[in-house]
Batch of 4 targets.
Target 1
Amino acid sequence: MKTYIKLFAISSLFVLGACSGDFLDTEPSTTKVEENFYKTPADAYQGLVAIYDVLQREAYGGPLLISEQASDDCFGGYGIADAQSDIEWDRFLFVSNKEMNADVWKYAYLGIYRANILLENLSKVNWGTDTALKTRYEAEARFLRAHFHFMAAKMFGDIVPLDHTIAASEFLLPRQSAEVTYALIGNDLKFAADNLSTDNYSQTGNANYGRITKWAAEAYLARTFLFYTGYYKKVDLAGVVTKAQAVTYINDAVSNSGHNLVSDFANLWLAASFDKFAGEDNTEMVWAVRFNGSGKGDWNLNEGNRFQVDIAPRGGAIGPYATGWGGATVTPKLYNAYEPGDTRRDATIIDYKNETYKGNPLNFDAVAREQRQYTGYSWKKYCPINNDAGTSIVEANGGNFQIDNYQDYAIIRFSDVLLMAAELNFEGNPGLALADINRVRDRAFKDTNHRLTTANFTVPAIMKERQLELALEGLRYFDLIRQGMDVTKAAIDNTNADAQFNVTFRTETQGWFPLPQSQIVLSNGTISQNPGW
């Protein structure tokens, strides 16, 4: 049996499949097979690019958009005649579309599969004397394998962890306990953190921007540590990383990475800053998924950021904001959570009722635009924009406004690193923890008058700061469930005179999303649906 790799030069993708039969014993002339492909470092690099490519398969939101709709920061939104699945994510129902999370599962395992393919073939490559390059590729591949495992595990709970490409006899593997999955994640991230160089690629024009670094691995290790130990009430990361080690890693990322905060929070987001935009490869971006508009309307490519259109104003452009589908409307609760003077509010959220453009109010007519769950607020972070002529920048450049938006998705910003450091240092070094969180608040208020003190510095204060700083970045829901079902329910439940805004979080789900029904059917009984679904 041979595994075939079809090479697409444009997007550097690998499409892998398995077949058997005597006719396959002859080496094909038009395709390469795994057995004869991995010979040179250039081959290994193509394999690495294939793993990175899966990151762009966010499709229309993935965990980012799903979790924001499920959190207390957003409702479901979209149009009044649109699919009900968006309301189901919002209201924690599961009524109509039993495949609503299929893409999350599919792309997580595609990424895991591609990572395992490369890792299993690194030893076949002739590295010459450059063994450091082999170690680098292994570290990046193992980081990405950990990322894809974590993407699935934080959505679905117990999953099937895979540290190798599976044989036919393993197609019906059962889910494993969280400890097994997180031990694999922890070991992979630890290897990456310990073996990658101290390079920092977040500089304008750096060709390696978007690649994994030691600093991204240290920060991601802290993120998984906090989620696992919080949700499962454990003292360490599956016996692999102790709290003391997690503290050492995150403090190293704070002190030695070379990353820093951009001086003005608004300049991180194109729709909040326009000509003052700091650029995507700015010093605050520890790790981001890269997108571009090169697809020019080709739906077969995945180069563009496709979730941006989901959260843009419904029914046509309004002011400087380009058109979209009006998904995940922002809750008044989030808007009102910001203190007076906090610059993050107006850089994060479009306020249709009070915001003006060129001296004119935005005048959003929800009825005319058929906007469901209209709150008066939507995403400014990641919102696509128009040029001065009122045309979408994407369309002005020859692209399709639905699939060719190009803003990168920030997975780890340095402000998140500081807030994780504050949380991890809270008990052992409260002075350092307080200094880290106040760096974030100083930037938010553009002064030092809003700093927390020892009197009001608490773990809930850290979680509140995370909500305000990292709103609409796909972290809030997971921050809630790691604090417990009671905290999650208290935050998400919403009662309103208008029934369309009523939300009841169901604790019997334990915070997990439903598995795609197709996976349960295909498992032949080895996988069962998550509780509460």
Target 2
Amino acid sequence: MSRADVLKVLEARAADQWGLVTTAQAKLDAVQGVQLLRLERAGLLESVGHGVYRILASPPPEHLGIKVAWLRLDPRTPARDRDIEGPGAGVVSHASACAVHGLGGRPTDPVELTVSSRRTTRDETVVLHRARMDADDITVVDGLPVTTVPRTVVDLLDARADAARVGTVLAEAVSRDLVRVDDLAARVGPFAAAYGLPAEASGAELLEFLCEQAGRPLRARKAARAATRTAGSQGKRATIWEVAERAGVSHQTVSRYLKNDSGMRPTTRARIERAVAELDYRPNLVARSMRTRRSHRITIVLPELSGFVPIPLLRGASAAAHEAGYLTDVIGLQGGESRRARSVLSLLDTRQADGVLSLVPLGKLTGGPDAGQRPVVVLGEYDDDLHARGRLADGRPAEQILRHLADQGHRRFLHVAGSQEWASARNRRAVYVEAIERLRLESYGVVDGDWSVRSGYEAARDLPADSGVTAVLAANDYVAMGVIRGFQDRGTRVPQDMSVFGWDDEEFTRYFSPTISTVHMDKEEVGRRAMLSLLALLRGEPAPVADVAELFHIVPRESSGPAPR
């Protein structure tokens, strides 16, 4: 590679890790150490730590030493792919966390990191602590995983840091609304004796003592802020510790609950659920995603978004995902099946989504035997133009409508069809024609419509008075509304003189006058079942039954009734 090509490769690596790149990452791109040396001598790279270079064209990052030390924990893995468990994992903590949070007033040296497994370092500028972290004890600052301010204070106390130093950090955190004193007090009580306080001293007394040592008493500040901490500190985000206290369990038990531990006792689960609801607790998904290497997001794929969006189906799918702890993103992907498939693989490979539910075809991309690598469920209920197909385009309810109306004495019918570009319109028309013959009924004919209110209005307006028709089957509810209005304008009463049936059970059908008889499709349950299949795929469990047994049912209302005598 030329010098320009090498630099371009390194810049791509460094783009999302503060302009820094490691020699181990460079080797993955076939860039050797001698090439890095040449770029350094040319004034294009700067060595900022053993095995770490900075692209000089990029701005110098803040907390450079901390970022270099963190990258060196796992030099081969890009920053975006790092987690906080396993070999090479680590979180910025203790005094270094104070520096990143801007607390304490002076830079930190050495760099302090907390790792989850035993390891050592020969770097005298780095101190490694070993401890396990809960997701709620970690936040992300400028792309770095850092202990939250409350956890940082606890870590400093556990390490027996200087009282005045901790007091300064605490006082600044309180003044900036980065910590809730009452919550922190519940966590620091066990350290009181280590700082010379009586064994029975409370956590609140320890915090007051620390701030006094820093010359910044907490008492006056607490009094000045008392009014803002009423009614459960409105606007403040509840913590896992508060949930545990409210439920009367340990924070580890709450963590198990959040992971859907199936072995938890029902009574314990109920107490935690109640505490979560009362405190409006929301887990720290950013920290959790770093721990599990998951985004905790599911993407629902449509073709390029247009004026029509299948809201009921999306509502059912999203509800099932949210119940399982996932957020959902709905995106429209341009192009054909192959192009959409490539985009879906990119979403999964970059961990922007843990799984994908596609309402449209994705070529040969499916969950299949390698579901662990491709957690994708293709529902395929719409084509590239968001026209319904498959189960949602089933026309068989047209026969149910005809049977229902025939039982009420109707014998001669009219069908106002939808656009024949849609499979659903073609299927409804075909079933109507076949059922008329099979049930020995009469059809005046089929009017070619286009799903619009206007097409229904014109069909009713133009129907001859001597047609003998007593019931109209409209292709959808909008067409049915036009049919009703067309008959009303010509003095034909609905349903006394003419019965009208729509399709889709749109919300307005329950409030129109007369209310419109229709066909209800349980699209929400279709979406829900599809999402449950994807969730099972993600968990490595058998897929539940995806089909909805009673997808359609007819809903007679005021617009239909007995045939006129």
Target 3
Amino acid sequence: MDLVPALEEPLEQPLKSVLGPATAKVMAEHLGLHTVGDLLHHYPRRYEERGQLTHLADLPMDEHVTVVAQVADARLHSFASPRAPRGKGQRLEVTITDGSGRLQLVFFGNGVHKPHKELLPGTRAMFAGKVSVFNRRLQLAHPAYELLKSDTEEAVETWAGALIPLYPATAKLESWKIGKAVQTVLPSAREALDPLPDSLREGRGLVSLPEALLKIHRPHTKADIADARARLKWDEAFVLQVALARRRHADAQLPAVPRRAAPDGFLAAFDDRLPFTLTEGQQKVSKEIFDDLATEHPMHRLLQGEVGSGKTLVALRAMLAVVDAGGQAAMLAPTEVLAQQHHRSVVEMMGALAEGGMLGGAEQATKVVLLTGSTGAAARRQALLDLVTGEAGIVIGTHALIEEKVQFHDLGLVVVDEQHRFGVEQRDALRGKGHSRGEKRTPHLLVMTATPIPRTVAMTVFGDLETSVLDQLPAGRSPIASHVVPAADKPHFLARAWERVREEVANGHQAYVVCPRIGDEEDGAKAAKKKSPEDEAEKRPPLAVLDVADQLAKGPLGGLRVEVLHGRMHPDDKDAVMRRFAAAETDVLVATTVIEVGVNVPNATAMVIMDADRFGVSQLHQLRGRVGRGSAPGLCLLVTEMPEASAARQRLNAVASTLDGFELSRIDLEQRREGDVLGQAQSGARSSLRVLAVIEDEEVIAEAREEAAAVVAADPNLERLPGLRTALDALLDDDREQYLEKG
């Protein structure tokens, strides 16, 4: 992270290697370590203690002990074994004594040669290992030992109390070899340039970076480790927060057109049409958004909302405020199904206000156009024309909105739904289409997500966005009962699940059945090629929509109207299926996770998720949010064949036990661990978090965010902090810089 010339030195060079070429090659290929600095920031995972010095008379069972004793006797035995059938197996038995008792040491195979030469009767040494029992006698098998040449008490105490660092290793490179390599480069740590401003470091009582690196790799006490970790956590949190604070600062310098709703404009007319009053949460979040829209710098806001909390309504009111002010608004959705769904619900909510230029349209009306990859040629031409002339105030679409041909009259607001599904380039390409009165202007940005994000993750991952949270469900929403159905242990539970679906349909409601896979030939071939470890273990591919729909229609759901929906269908067919389901012409929809977000059919009350263990916690929560959207209570059944004691079952039990998305997102994060949070998967880079734990270190992150904001406000280009600038350059390689822009 903190690279200066000594630390930038490659581990392997043509003429001179810091380490042996073979070691350096393995480190580069398997651990991603290329420079001295990389290796110094490869911290120990934990520390092994040789243990306090123990008298032989007081040895505890199954514990690591360190003893100082004298060799009384050493004997080499030969024996036959499956590996050495001709009696060529070797076992060295050494008896040691310290005056209080005796203990046997045992070494086998090739491991006998060195101790046989060194552990001669009369030799004094320190021995460390785990105490076990063999033939009713205490013994240490293959202990580590150090011969005591100078018999000073100090040498004995130092060796016994030493903390042995254990490093994240690979099959090709053991921890102790990594430890030796670290010791080789450790002197360079003294040249590490400190990224923290002196005032901050001293004010928080943190050790310097060189001291932290020395203490984490060669600690004398547990207090050394604590000091080092406290300091290194601050580095990670602070450097990351400075990167985000600089992005916020740069964004705040960009010009934007203030957009204020007219007192008697679209927004007022829309609010008058609403058949209900907004929740307190919706009013509060709307005010935050309207205040941002009224400024001369672009809004950057993340709108988090529980499933069904009314985010779309809040976003639509923001879009109408912009249309009021003479601008246009674009909503970017991740899938065609979702774009069509948003378009349908926006047009329904706006009624005559969405019929601009049409007979029967309201006096104040605009056009709401839909633009996806499958929009027909004539409709596409008309939509493009309506956007460039300003006839269409609102456009809803997929990636098709980003194409070069799409031009706007005056784009004032970009709303991105389910942000985590888009790359930076896509978001920025759409924002790049903003200009007003011939000048390039950055549109305001509202990012929406229904995946609840713990506060620390929001500060870390979405740190360049201000956050608004909608955590109140609208009145009239029904509770959802969730249950785990253990299909392997209790097959009759699964039979009962299908009976429950039939009961819901008999009561005039509808149901979803969700499967992990589509099940056509191409999909099957892919699954066969790339099996997950769970698949290998179970010797069964995940259940597929086409197979399950067929079995249900012929079996437990015979006589009901069953249809399928998946991502590989033609968009028109998908739309037709969704329309039939919304119109209650279908009883049961068997689908993939294409229905995960945004699909809104209030009459659907039951959901059965097959192979629920194949889905993540947040995904299950999203899926469950598709039921209970009307006045009738919802039911979600999580079907699994995993055994009761498995981690997968515990995950499902957690989902079944709470409807609190924030609680579930914490569970999800704890299971996936922090690396993913910073987008390892998206950016392809190794996680920059080595000692910082996003959930546990909430306070450090919050404080680092405040400190970073103050530092950047005082010195945006970090001219007075060269060490911090160097650390930033190392953290923000191209991949990660892109990711921080919110991939």
Target 4
Amino acid sequence: MNATAPSPAPGVPVERRESGESALGASVERREGRQKVTGTARYAAEQPRPGRAHAWPVPASVARGRVTGIDTAAALDLPGVIAVLTHENAPRLSEPDDAMLAVLRDSRVPHRGWFVALVVGETLEAARAGAAAVRVDYAVEDHDVTLTRDHQAAYAPEEANGGYPGTREHGDPEGAFASADVRVDVDYRVPPLHNHPMEPHATTAEWQHGRLTVHTSTQGATTVRTVLAGLFGIPEDHVTVHAEHVGGGFGSKGTPRPDVVLAAMAARHTGRPVTLALPRRFLPAVVGHRAPTLHRLRLGARPDGRLVSLIHEVTTHTSRVKEFVEQAAVPTRVMYAAPDSRTAHRVAPLDLPTPSWMRAPGEAPGMYALESAMDELAGELGMDPVDLGGAGGAPRPAAGAEGPLLVGSGVAAATYPVLVHPSTAAVRALPDGTFQVGINAADIGTGARTVLAQIAADRLAVPVDRVRIEVGSTDLPAAPLAGGSSGTASWGWAVHEACARLAERLAGGLVPAEGMEVRADTAGRADADSPYARHAFGAHFAEVAVDTVTGETRVRRLLGVYAAGRILNSRTARSQFVGGMTMGLGMALTEGSTMDAAFGDFTESDLASYHVPAHADVPDIEAHWIDEDDPHLNPMGSKGIGEIGIVGTAAAIGNAVFHATGTRVRELPLTPDRVLGGIGRGAVPRGF
């Protein structure tokens, strides 16, 4: 489709192939890309305000207790140190709805790494040196940071994350399982995982005449403004939040984190602009993490493979600061039809950091366990889940391999819900024939600017280089956060509607000298109850080579095929799919965190110890999709694509390792010691 011609369905973009993207989205991508590679794109910590100071937090060094004394004298004596904020002198704020933001309010220490002081200095180096000089005394209390399936404090929550019921049961799942012809009863474990965006959490805050302006790294500037206004007791229109460029988030920037509150407190206390950029090693303790999940799956089936019972029970942890329940059993309610089923969560409050959103919360760990168990059920039934046109069957030595390698293939399904939220947007026609679209969306590296420009250009029937997109500021029309793969669907609906109204007003008339602006608000429609189930689905395929001497697993090929509505831009969509699959590869093979029981601390606190995939780990990844027309979504017919790529990848890789070696490792990541341990138990590679 040419950008200057109306689409077959008026105002609705069709799938873009690479051949047409240079005419549609390339100009927006070039503008954005040029700013980033030349360093002119300013991120939250890169705001050179006159008189700007820098801040550095002081984390608690005990796992639980309270502060009994803070000696700041040595810090204040250092050159360049301006102030030290503690619970004794920090500005008093209102009680936050999110207890993770209750920083410097009192003497309690709910977990190791909780911030107990903040040092402000003329330079970053001065603030860091000052933080090291602060001396804190504690009254230490006993702590518990170890999650077990039978933890005595575990309880059944009423709801899991997302508002899903904590437990759902149909029929008699226990009885149906006991009488099933074929049964699988297995346990799987996913460890704690951490969001490590390229740009750590950072904020620059400034007060002027009772008004607060912050530049912060967030997935939702509108939410940040609301929270800050409530905390500081000022009207929302006295708070301006900018987040024009965001260097990734993976869920950890979905809601405000302590950096934005502390920076605003320090700016008010000192009367100067203050920048706070959290050191990476502090992130696991204060910005959330994917909680560990212990899964028990019981699958009962008839000899023909039809399920008669499905039971998925999950135990996870939360903090004593705030309840967050990873909804890892919820995707099981969607994927397979079983007449008798139970999906249930239990959660244990422990003395550790509060877990939160991480890419595909619930779906990523839940589908790993479910699809691994389904692979085990296929084996019990004598079915071959990896018969990919001759690629399945018995594992085989690697062609041309110099060592004792076994190659196997695996498959797993994926699903992710379609979420849409109300949004507002404005579009202005200018006399020179160009258009300005304003919406407080967040481009966290997903190409939101490009796709929104395409939606606008299609509906206005103009070339995309005549459309300018402004995002990432509360000066723009309010919009929901970038989360739950809902961004494009939510923002695009408002942009589409505003452009449609403007096109009607422009028909047969000239643009006045002052321009012409139209606004749209999708409240009442985007959030209306729908009688239709709305999900994206996918299938993941993996080929791995396993060294039987070292236990090293290498993924040779990954393939993902998706049904995700109408794809609006194939280049940005493929990037999202491949990015999710790469993250799933890390989840399967390298990423994992351990909680030190004695110190109450995550031992993997930086990228030297928390291993994310490197280029050498990601050889051949393909992402494809089928054309899907679902009229019950939004005017564009699009579904979210940011998260489904991770959902089935880990299970496909784990199933491929089993196919290659006969070793079923039920705990992630599939490290060499675990793979070798299974092989060493005398497991025999299976064949069909």
